[in-house]
Amino acid sequence: MSDIKSEAIALAALFQCSLQIDRLSQTGYYDEKAVATVIRALLVTKPKTIEDIYNPSDLTVGFRQLINSTDKSDTQKVLMSRDITSLAFKIIELAVRVEKNSRVFAKLSDEIDGLENAVLTEHENFLEGDAAVVNLQSNFHLFGSLYQSIISPNFPPLIIYGQENILKDTDNQEKIRSLLLAGIRAVLLWRQVGGRRRYFIFRRNKILETAKKFA
Question: In angstroms, rounded to a whole number, what is the distance separating the alpha carbons of residues 45 and 152?
Answer without folding.
Answer: 23
